[in-house]
Amino acid sequence: MLTSPDPDDDPFEELSPINLRISTRVNVSRDNNLVALPSTPSDQAAIVAEAIVRAFKSSTVMEGGIPMIDQDGRPRPVKIEVDAGMTVEGSHNIVGTESIIADVLRNRHATYLKQRTGSVSSTATAVDRTTGSGGCSEDSSRSATPSRRRSASEMDCEPQLPASKRARSQGQSAL
Where is composition skewed (Polar residues) in this entry (predicted)? Predict the structure, then answer.
């Protein structure tokens, strides 16, 4: 007489399963943190899981590894959980790969140097590409110190217009 299997019976319950839980979680708290990761969290979790599977496959009982079958010759179930979560709390935190963090540091250093030396920002004056000057004539009474910021009122010169626009504006003033 055959009996139907009981749905409450778990076939893995009588086996000795292998359960692994690995956490590669990253927790960032407070403000202004730079966190360089070798890869994305999901890539990192995949790398860890693959390494574990390779270790299981390469280990044998003769090498002192984990027996992958039970005493009756049935395969042991393996359950691997990898937590690759990320929690970031605070403000102005940057989490990324090493190249991203390096770019951020270069930009911050350049900004620091500009602030420290007081150099003119690239948007503060328009540079005429043909003469290399900031639009002022060479005989300006003020010295041209590149590391000093000047307001528009300090610059005693008219803005340079491209040749096509200069010709139009001079023609209109003659009328």
Answer: 116-131
